[in-house]
Amino acid sequence: MGNIDSTGNGLYVHVPFCTKKCSYCAFNVSHNGLHLQGDYFKALGAEVLHYLTNGPFELRGVGFDTVYFGGGTPSLVDPSLIADFLASIPLAGGAEVSIEVNPESARRELFTSYVDSGVTRVSIGVQSFDDKVLCYYGRTHDAAGAERAIELAVETEGLSVGIDLVYGSEVEDDKSWSRTVLKTASLATGISHVSAYALGIEKRTKLHYDKAKSQSEDVLAERYLMADEAFEGCGLQNYEISNWACTDGRCRHNANYWSWGDYLGVGLGAHSHFGRSRWWNDPSLKGYIAAVKTQGTGFLAGEELVDSQVEAERLMLALRIQGGLSEKELKTWVSRTESEELLGLFEIVNGRASLKPRGRLLADGVFRALSA
To answer: How many domains in the chain?
Structure first.
């Protein structure tokens, strides 16, 4: 299973610092810890070194093939910390190095410094091109600022540019989402990647406490199909349920996740996966820094996956990506059920099976049916 190229040498770096927590955010972030950024990055470097020296994570090759700085707001930190960190770790030739950027952080000199440090792609957290929706999400930029950030990034030589969108809030209507989709499509000559996720209201978020609601499943489905048609129409092909890219714009780091590859996660709350082992770190800023000082890593807990878990997770991920199953694998899975009609949700290209656009909307149900 899995038909997207994966490397197995991925490194995820969690950068938790934020000036403000967005209303939908359930990630591990720190609002008042930026003064600890130096200590934090020392801990990140020490944790990578510990794992490469002592295991259990092992580099298969000459270095990390992909690095992803996620958050939080990585673009808040001093760019020299990013540069020093990248200089301290082994990187394979042609490594993909990604960093998430908030529009309000965008500056021409910031993007230039990233490229000089080895960063190859940025993912800009646009979320919407409607100011009313951005206010609802608690974002600190407006639509004009998002467009300006994209422009600066696109003008930076050597940088691949992607944007992230979120749809389905209760203040968003068809006209609002259409405006965001059309604006995104108009920028497709410069950007190489778009992620678009339906809003999920998770526990311990502001939206959860405010008892907010997202749109109905039917509305979310139509919003998704609108985006898929527009993005495909401007040359951005769907390669994972919520991700579209030009031919050479796919995110190799995320492709490794979706292909059930190995990756090391460093930083507070970061998760790692190696073989059948999965583990995760202390979720607090000071707790993580202290743990690295005393034990070399931020390790909090972990688990060993059994055969049934591996099989289920690989199927779930394969259903999300284009060509994730071979035609033979699909027919084998379907033969275990009494639901031959499931085959109608797939298209077969060169012996590989992918969910059709409307089938993608039912991916969770398809997984449950096949794995029952």
So the answer is: 2
